[in-house]
Amino acid sequence: MGARVAALAATLIAACVAGPAFAQQAPSEAGYVANLSGPLFALKADGTRRVLSTRSVVSSGDTLITEDKTYARVRFSDTSEVTLRPSTQLKIENYSFNRAEPENDNSLFRLFKGALRTVTGLIGRRGNRDAYRMNTATATIGIRGTVYGVTVCVPGSCGDQPSGTYVNVIDGSVGIAPAVAPVVPGQPPVPPPTAEVVLAAGQFGYVPPAGPPVQLPSDPNVGTFAPPSSFVQRPDAPPPTTQVTPGTPASRPVGGPASGECEVR
Prior knowledge:
The protein has helices at about 1-25, 230-235; strands at about 30-35, 40-45, 50, 55-60, 65, 70-75, 80-85, 90-95, 105-120, 130-135, 140-145, 145-155, 165-170, 175-180, 195-200, 205, 215, 240-245, 250-255, 260-265. It is mainly beta. It has one domain (about 30-180, about 195-265): Jelly Rolls. The strands form two sheets. It has an 18-stranded mixed beta sheet that branches. It has a two-stranded antiparallel ribbon with strand order 18-19. Strand 10 (about 130-135) and strand 11 (about 140-145) form a beta hairpin. The longest helix is centred in the first third of the chain and has 22 residues, at about 1-25. The protein is globular and about 40 Å long.
């Protein structure tokens, strides 16, 4: 009996010691919310839903969701920015940035619905340009140091325009190609995707649900993108430092607002 009690006590002590360490194993922090005009949520990888406020931290694996009147600007650690239009869902599929390790850069996003405008940062510009990708259901978008917008249209969401992915380049250039089909075990290999179409500043492109990408002759007018003027006039704040409190599921910016940040299970 004494041996069993001693073993149980040792197990409990080990669990208590290990608990804080496990609590600090959070997903990789990617950036923070710089500007916000309404409700913004993060759907976490574990299924929890978190309400975000200005200066809330966002992490690799988060799906960011704006409400029907919300614009949100997110600044990432490589100095890139993404501004989300209302009724948009964007997943940070994989994000990794370390100034000392450019060979390990990775910035992979997936736009499920809605529209965004992005200013690219160091990832994709200081080494492997393929380290950056923006994916949708129909398109894969690569960059060459740029500012561009992308809109995902479904039936009825973009007026009379057909469904698919629309891209407009404001500065620099992007390459657009059809989405790569996933590999299915036991099935024939997927044919290589159609050669990408490169768009320069001032040009527009379209990737249909099926078929090759095309350059459009003019602006397709797939929706208004008009974030509040404060989004562009506000000086950039430095990224917040973060802290992890043992026993809590996520970190928050030190000195940032704790109110408005909660988890709904």
